[in-house]
Design a protein that fits this description.
about 180 residues, four-stranded antiparallel β-sheet
Length: about 180
Amino acid sequence: MSARKFAADKLLWETLGRWKRSSPELDRIQFLKTVPFFDRLSKRQLKTVSDIMFERTYDTNEWIFEEGQPGAAMFLILDGKIAIEICRETGTTHLAVLEKGAFFGEMALLDDTPRSANARALERTRTLALYRNDLTGLRRRHARTACQIYRSLATMIADRLRATNELVQMKTPADMA
């Protein structure tokens, strides 16, 4: 191989390598790997999940969903901040402020029970949404991948239930009255 052809091939492969490493699809897969729902999936499985997720940008103070609406999707925050809050006649209670890498609305993957709180963008925010119907379709086409997602969901729900039980057990009878 001539030195000229070798240099041209090297330049081509270096360019392709930089393009591949910075591609939005690869960035999305790397992001998904950091989310507990997906951290045990292989790259191939992550690609499959990534392909069924929808990206959306919300403006400041735009509702992602409101309390009482049927749950249809779980959301992952790519960039920005989300407030989880409950609005009552007496005022608004902020339950959490979530940032990049956090997820919310995961119970919607199990059923269409109405949302128990509001989710509102505190600043311009990009999210990925995984819809229950798409996860159901994934279960039919890639059962092992869907099973791992459901297992992660069950583990997180169990952890939250244990934490809630501990809080209830710490309350004294006077607190309960």
